[in-house]
Amino acid sequence: MKCSELFQLSKLKDKRALIVALFYAFVFTNILEAKITIELYPFVNLKKEKVYIKDIANVTGKDKKNRLEKFIEDIYVTKIDAGIKKIDKDEVLKSLKKNYIDIKNIEVIGPDRVIVQRETIRLTQLQILKDIESFLKKRYKDTIEIVSISINKKEIILPYGKIEKKIKIRSKTTNNIYLKYDIFIDGEKRISLPVTVKVKYFLMIPYAKRDIPKGKKIEPDDVYLKKTTVTNILRNTFKLEDVIGKVAKRNIKKDSIIKDYLLSPDYMVLKGKSVKILYSNGFINIELMGLALENGSKGDIIKVKNISSNKVIKCKVVAPFVVKYTK
Q1: Measuring CA to CA, how many Å separate 86 from each of 44, 96, 115, 176?
Q2: What is the mean pLDDT of the chain?
Q3: What is the CATH architecture assignment of 34-118?
Q4: Residue 82 above 80 pLDDT?
Q5: Where are the domains of the chain?
Q6: Which of 48, 50, 77, 253 is found 20 to 30 A from 201 (Cα to Cα)?
Q7: Which architecture characterizes domain 122-199 according to CATH?
Q8: What is the Cα–Cα distance from 246 to 261, expressed in whole angstroms?
Q9: How far is C-alpha 2 from the chain's CA centre?
Q10: Looking at residues 149-160, what average pLDDT do you find?
Q11: Do 148 and 164 form a contact (C-beta atoms < 8 A)?
Q12: DSSP codes, 100-124
């Protein structure tokens, strides 16, 4: 290619670049000089927290929708929690300035201020009480009776959103259960309520069906269960399965509560008494004499002294005064 041709081509490229630059300058100037009108609404009801210009006003220009109008619509103004907030024209203009918008060509019309109300969720004290009752009944079933529930809020107003409630037990005493009632909106904790629940605890307590003399082994027919309020006096009570098979350490009167200190295990082997030791290995079965070093009920593993060798071995209680050697 000749030099003259290259020169002509470069001149052509320069002209094209100049035309493109002039075109964009013309368009950009028109955008900036275009008159934009922001007409505020008198009242707006929102579900969300963040407020944008498009939420509180109608943005229009002389021509069809351009990029600047779209940009203005998406400008953030403020945020609103539960309740009502007033947004005036100055706040809108400040938002525009923060986003480097020349407000000379912006006209804000309509009311002096927009009243923005965020939709709310109202939780009444009755709803909270029902939540707590349901939680406790599910957890404790029939073992408690709710006497009273103390909450220091009559009503809770929360911003609209996905609500989640979590109840946790902080601590317990003989008469009270202390709870924490947390409320989340869209995953964010909004409030935490301390709750005090006065309760009565109930258990099915074993009672003597008849007079039970000292030394008698407790049989199923000697006992009946009765739903009873649990207090500190009843800390040492047994369940039915803990009573059957035990031996009365003293006389137990009819219709009295069978407490743990009134019973002792039904030991088949007594400490300090002689026992028969059974030893088996394949076809070999040996019986030895031993001395029990511990009390033992059936199935218990206890220490036994082999009389012939004076060695202490571990044995399983299998019958009255009979134990079986275990490795």
Answers
A1: 10, 18, 5, 46
A2: 85
A3: Sandwich (2.60)
A4: no
A5: 34-118, 122-199, 202-264, 274-325
A6: 253
A7: Roll (3.10)
A8: 11
A9: 83
A10: 88
A11: no
A12: T--GGGEEEES-SEEEEEE-EEEEE
Alpha carbon distance 247, 216 (integer Å) = 5
**Which residue bears the tokens 């001149």?**
11
Lowest model confidence (mean pLDDT) among 59-63, 184-188, 215-219: 59-63
d(CA 129, CA 136): 11
Q: Which CATH number fits domain 274-325: 1.25.40.890, 2.40.160.20, 2.30.30.760, 2.120.10.30?
A: 2.30.30.760
Which residue in the block uniquely carries the two structure tokens 């219709």? 255
Task: For residues 289 and 305, give the distance between their C-alpha atoms in angstroms, rounded to a whole number.
Answer: 9
DSSP state, residue 234: G
Q: Give the three-class secondary structure for 166.
A: strand
What is the third-level CATH fold of 202-264?
A: Type Iii Antifreeze Protein Isoform Hplc 12 (3.90.1210)
Q: How far apart are CA 271 and CA 293, in angstroms?
A: 5
Per-residue tokens: 108: 């804000």
Whether the Cβ atoms of residue 225 and residue 194 lie closer than 8 Å to each other: no
- Residue 298 vs residues 36, 103, 222, 245, 311: alpha-carbon distances, Å: 95, 95, 21, 11, 23
33 contacts 61 by C-beta, under 8 angstroms: no
Q: What is the pTM of this model?
A: 0.54
Write the DSSP assignment of 172-199 as a string of letters.
E-SSEEEEEEEEEETTEEEEEEEEEEEE
How many other CB atoms sit within 10 Å of the CB of residue 208? Answer: 21
Residue 216 DSSP code: P
- Give residue 48's pLDDT band: very low, low, confident or very high (50, 70, 90): confident
